[in-house]
Design goal:
Low-confidence stretches: none
CATH class of the largest domain: Alpha Beta
Radius of gyration: 40 Å
Helix content: 40-55%
Strand order of the largest sheet: 2-1-5-4-3
Order of helices and strands: HHEEHHHEEEHHEHHEEHEHHE
Strand content: 15-25%
Structural class: alpha+beta
Largest sheet: 5 strands, antiparallel
CATH superfamily of the largest domain: Reverse transcriptase/Diguanylate cyclase domain
Number of domains: 3
Number of strands: 10
CATH topology of the largest domain: Alpha-Beta Plaits
Number of helices: 12
Length: 356
């Protein structure tokens, strides 16, 4: 039962009870006949009983309404998928709903022994003040923040907070939403803006932009890089003979082999159709050739569902040093690599042709 409801009912009941005894003793002590005293006492007793009965029914209804309100509040409080915390100015958690402790991996009893510093990353906890500053306690506050679970797992959340006054003391109500799925979706959508959907390599726009960045780095730092343009041999015949689904599978398998062999500081992207670009950053042409040759050999050995399917690619490779990068555009570099690629095609395909 809600304590506030009980406290509300007590004064009215006590008022009528004490009122009855006061007036009863007044009648008893007054200089009147015994019969008159008795009649007045009975009359007053009945009146008091009537008033008390009405008041008790009212108080009973009030208590029932309070109980129902409390049940509704607790139901809504615990049905919320968002975590709800009630905190002191010192960040102590003094109440929470079911999501408020399950989201963090605690029982409710455990959560009510925690402070805000226990559920945030350690480096952020070290920056928190002991008492929330006055300027932060006015109005609603919305933030996105990483929180910490009981097992140490970090997860992204959005938090809405508001200060209220309860019993003359300031309390902070915090609504915490786990936005892990939203962040993962945002990351996937972000990847779609610079990744090729089929091959999962970088798309043409990104790879050209990165080539601009690496070319400027060559000019600025005087380092050397290598650029590879490769094209799957007889890809049209593969599509015509085995179907486009098989062709897509060939593209995916080559993309996986490329990704498995290049370094994290290198970039591979789909140039278009069955053509791919690899940027070997800060890498001489001999090292780049060895890696590309390894990719070529692995690709030739790749097995596919379609029997008798043989695959290979031809590639053109150029080195780009500070002198060779001067006064040259991205199109100039792509054209040079493309010319070498078609030399390989004319030499019987399944070739890597490089400058120098």
């Amino acid at each position: 039962m809600n304590r506030k409801c009980i406290l509300t009912a007590i004064p009215s009941v006590l008022y009528w009870i004490f009122g009855f005894y006061f007036f009863f003793f007044y009648l008893y002590l007054a200089p009147q006949s015994s019969i008159k005293k008795a009649l007045l006492a009975v009359s007053y007793l009945l009146t008091v009983y009537w008033f008390v009965s009405i008041k008790l029914r009212q108080q009973k209804k009030l208590i029932k309404d309070c109980q129902e309100s409390e049940e509704i509040y607790q139901t809504l409080f615990n049905l919320s998928l968002d975590a709800i915390h009630l905190e002191t100015e010192r960040g102590e958690i003094i109440d929470c709903n079911r999501s408020g402790h399950e989201m963090f991996g605690y029982t409710k009893e455990e959560m009510l022994t925690k402070t805000i510093k226990d559920i945030v990353p350690d480096d952020f906890a070290a920056t928190l003040p002991e008492v929330i500053p006055e300027e932060m306690t006015t109005g609603d506050v919305y933030v996105e923040r990483v929180n910490k679970k009981k097992d140490g797992t970090l997860f992204p959340t959005e938090i809405n907070t508001k200060f209220i006054e309860i019993g003359g003391q300031r309390r902070l109500i915090a609504y915490v939403k786990d936005i892990t799925e939203r962040k993962e979706l945002e990351e996937e959508l972000k990847k779609l803006t610079f990744k090729d959907e089929l091959t999962k390599l970088y798309n043409r726009r990104f790879i050209f932009n990165q080539l601009e960045i690496e070319l400027a780095r060559v000019l600025r730092e005087g380092i050397e890089m290598s650029l590879v343009l490769l094209d799957i041999d007889n890809f049209k015949e593969i599509n015509d003979t085995y179907g486009h689904l098989c062709g897509d599978d060939v593209l995916r398998k080559l993309s996986e082999i490329i990704q498995d062999n290049i370094r994290k500081l290198d970039y591979a992207g789909r140039y278009g159709g069955e053509e791919f670009i690899i940027i070997f950053t800060a890498t001489g042409i001999e090292t780049a050739w060895q890696i590309t040759e390894r990719i070529r050999e692995q690709f030739k050995k790749q097995k596919f569902d379609s029997e008798n399917l043989m695959v290979s690619f031809s590639a053109g490779m150029i080195k780009i040093d500070q002198e060779g990068a001067k006064n040259r555009t991205i199109d100039d570099l792509i054209k040079e690599a493309d010319n070498l690629l078609y030399q390989g095609k004319n030499m019987g395909k399944d070739q890597i042709v490089k400058t120098g």
